[in-house]
Amino acid sequence: MGQVEVMNRRKFLIGAAASQLAASLMTAPVSAAAPPSRKIRQGLMPTVWRGSNFTIEQRCQALARIGYVSMDLPSVADVDIMRKHGLVPGIMTGGAGGTSFQNGTIRKEMHDSFEKATQEGIDLCARAGCANLFVFPGELRGMSRQEAADNTVAFFNRFKGYAEQKGVTLCMENTNSKVVADQRTDQAFDHVDWGFDICKRVNSPNVKILYDIYHAQVSDGDIARTLRDNIQWICHIHVAGDPGRLEIDDTQELNYRFLAKVIAETGFKGVVAHEWRLSPGHEMIATLEQCFRIMDV
């Protein structure tokens, strides 16, 4: 074989190899980019969707695309759809016969009747992969706050062992008694220190509070200090603007960008769920994106 012929053959082989490599790259599956590492895991309360026509499938698609990781209070059927989109339930409630805003943990005479629903609620959360079970303290209706606290401690001491065994956290949410429109004017847990004191007395890693920043701002203020000093007793957070419980933008008095940095600095591992109301004339998806960016530090 002559020298020219050898050179031509070599060029042919090199060219064929290059073409084959290019073809393989064109047809190889493209690996998805790794999701960004975020300091705050964000979720959504279903009340945000009030008045919209989005199906559960469309909601999950939108939230996953934006970067949300969780939805609160899903039905059992919702959980399967959420999982398809990489979303997890942030908090769930027990079934009928459990605690409520009217009759809750402060009613010691009702603890026996709450037992079945509470255990079923813990089991439901464990099966669904939900970290938290909503437990309601209830209305005072003349009861002293000290008696209400003592009865609530007794309730949690009764169920904390089962919750610890199942890996589910029992949590109660602070509210306010000031804004009549919020319909919570007689709740026992309308100041955060009442709930933190109960958590300290029960002293279980599976009994904490859902810290609702909107309600806390109305009742107590001092949000950043409260977060820093008590984060070990908080398992879940809700955010909304004050006044009006609208979006967490610059139209209200709380600087949520700053509070997001405070939450991130504490090392909080739970979910920060949005619970605002959509302002008239605002577009849902664009507002979800805007509020997500505010908390994405």
Distance between the termini: 68 Å
Content-based structural category:
alpha/beta
Please outline the major beta sheet: 9 strands, parallel
How many helices in DSSP terms?
Answer: 10
**Beta-sheet strand percentage?**
5-15%
**Can you list the strand order of the major beta sheet?**
3-2-1-9-8-7-6-5-4
The helicity comes to: 40-55%
Please tell me the total number of domains. Answer: 1
Poorly predicted runs are: 3-34
Radius of gyration of CA atoms, rounded to a whole number: 25 Å
Shape assignment: globular
Secondary structure layout plus pairing:
Elements: H1 3-27, E1 41-44, H2 56-66, E2 70-71, H3 76-84, E3 88-89, E4 92-93, H4 111-128, E5 132-134, H5 145-166, E6 169-173, H6 192-202, E7 207-212, H7 213-219, H8 223-230, E8 234-239, H9 256-266, E9 271-274, H10 284-295
Parallel strand pairs: 1-2, 1-9, 2-3, 4-5, 5-6, 6-7, 7-8, 8-9
Overview of the structural elements:
This protein is of the alpha/beta class. The chain has helices at residues 3-27, 56-66, 76-84, 111-128, 145-166, 192-202, 213-219, 223-230, 256-266, 284-295, and strands at residues 41-44, 70-71, 88-89, 92-93, 132-134, 169-173, 207-212, 234-239, 271-274. α5 (145-166) links the parallel β5 and β6. The radius of gyration is 25 Å and the shape is globular. The model is unreliable at 3-34 (pLDDT under 50).
Features:
297 residues; TIM Barrel; alpha/beta; nine-stranded parallel sheet; 10 helices; disordered N terminus; globular
Short description:
The protein is an alpha/beta fold. Helices cover about 45% and strands about 10% of the residues.
